[in-house]
Amino acid sequence: MLTVNAYAAPSASEALVPTTIERRDVGAHDVLIEIKYAGICHSDIHTVRGDWGPQSYPLAPGHEIAGIVTEIGSDVTRHKVGDRVGVGCMVNSCRECENCRKGEEQYCLKGMTGTYGAVDRDGTITQGGYSTHVVVTEDFVVRIPEGIALDAAAPLLCAGITTYSPLRHWGAGPGKKVGVVGLGGLGHMAVKLAHAMGAEVTVLSQSLKKMEDGLRLGADQYFATSEPATFEKLARTFDLIINTVSAPIDISSYLQLLALDGALVNVGAPAEPLPVNAFALIGGRRSFAGSAIGGIRETQEMLEFCAEHGLGAEIEVIPAEKINDAYERVLASDVRYRFVIDASTLG
Ligand code: NAP
Ligand code: ZN
Ligand code: ZN
């Protein structure tokens, strides 16, 4: 066992504190990764604060991990020492069910193993990327292409794949109008990716404060949702809307912005239900859908796509001691556009 430095929440109501956690010995199919950067996803905050249900504490979150392989198990073939690699939201799945066999491990019928707060195969609770090292089975480790800096790559492991996957699934591309609700960590990646795929992109943000950024990131249009005229102007416009908002919003009014056969895909995951007016769906053969991260193969594909198009996340790199301040800023929608922890500051 390896004892490594980490930042963890002692309970749902306390700030994260420096601590140590245990990593298992490197097994035959495992790789040991020296973590260089870990992104702060809003899901980390939902989880440690208990929004999605009770957790086991202390809990070190973090599922946007970028680092370097420093040791490999005897049977590892996919990675070697010195490789630049990433780990996202999953560290294992059953690998046998219908969905795993399709490469959609995030929908594993037996439940994928989350990078933190999940029961691992050995019965221990997984601990995430706010730490200096992690041991992961090789199949759940992806390669980070040379063209992407490790700090800007970290958020791609969740924010990137969570927006790439539905954009691909619902066919974002030339001639398609895509709306992105919320310009935070996921939202800003949705804008960059949809633009790179050739779609016409519109940001729907609470205000126009970040408009200049949104247009620079690749949006063609930018509207404030606090302005009622926005909903009149954009009625029946979009083929696809990606909702990245972490809080409940009035889904029915956003459904009205979809053209015939359009889909509103929720990736935002507030704990509260999202009520829908049936007529908002019926009146345009519209769909209201959801999507969870993406499979391992698709995550690798997304990283290659980002390298090819020169894409990474817009980040603010912070030392570990600023994690709790960063949480407050994320909760206040004051993030441009992802906080990334420099793992060398974890103590
Ligand atoms: P984030 O950086 O905090 O971005 C969320 C954005 O939503 C904010 O920047 C803000 O954008 C907008 N927003 C926040 N509160 C709002 C409110 N009350 N009303 C309207 N708009 C509001 O969060 P994130 O890391 O991108 O994550 C977003 C959500 O996706 C979270 O719920 C997270 O758990 C979830 N998530 C889901 C998956 C999945 O697999 N489905 C994966 C990762 C994350 P503006 O300031 O532009 O309005
Ligand atoms: Zn995440
Ligand atoms: Zn499975």
What does this structure look like?
- With 347 residues, the chain is α/β, with parallel strands linked by helices.
- The chain has 2 domains: 2-158 and 314-346, Medium-chain alcohol dehydrogenases, catalytic domain (Quinone Oxidoreductase, Chain A, domain 1, Alpha-Beta Complex); 160-290, Rossmann fold.
- The chain is built from 11 helices and 17 strands.
- It has helices at residues 42-48, 98-101, 150-153, 159-169, 185-196, 211-217, 228-233, 251-255, 278-282, 296-308, 323-331; strands at 2-8, 17-23, 30-39, 65-72, 84-87, 90-92, 113-114, 133-137, 142-143, 177-181, 200-205, 221-224, 238-243, 258-266, 287-290, 315-318, 338-342.
- Strands 3, 4, 5, 8, 9, 16 and 17 form a 7-stranded mixed β-sheet that branches. A 6-stranded parallel β-sheet has the order 12-11-10-13-14-15.
- It is globular and about 60 Å long.
Average the pLDDT over all residues and give the rounded result: 98
Shape: globular
Instruction: Predict the CATH topology of the largest domain.
Output: Quinone Oxidoreductase, Chain A, domain 1
**What is the assigned CATH homologous superfamily of the largest domain?**
Medium-chain alcohol dehydrogenases, catalytic domain
Percent helix range: 10-25%
CATH architectural group of the largest domain: Alpha-Beta Complex
How many structural units, i.e. domains? 2
Biggest sheet: strands, sense, closure? 7 strands, mixed
CATH class of the largest domain: Alpha Beta
Order of helices and strands: EEEHEEEHEEEHHEHEHEHEHEHEHEHE
Overall structural class, as computed from helix and strand content, comes to alpha/beta
Count of helical stretches: 11
Total number of beta strands: 17
Which stretches are low in confidence, meaning pLDDT under 50 for 5 or more residues running?
none
The amount of beta strand, in percent, is: 25-35%
Which oligomeric state applies? single chain
Q: What is the rounded distance between the termini?
A: 19 Å
Bound ligands: NADP nicotinamide-adenine-dinucleotide phosphate, zinc ion
Radius of gyration: 20 Å
GO molecular function, one term: alcohol dehydrogenase (NADP+) activity
Enzyme class: oxidoreductase
Domain Enoyl reductase (ER): 11-341
Protein name: alcohol dehydrogenase (NADP(+))
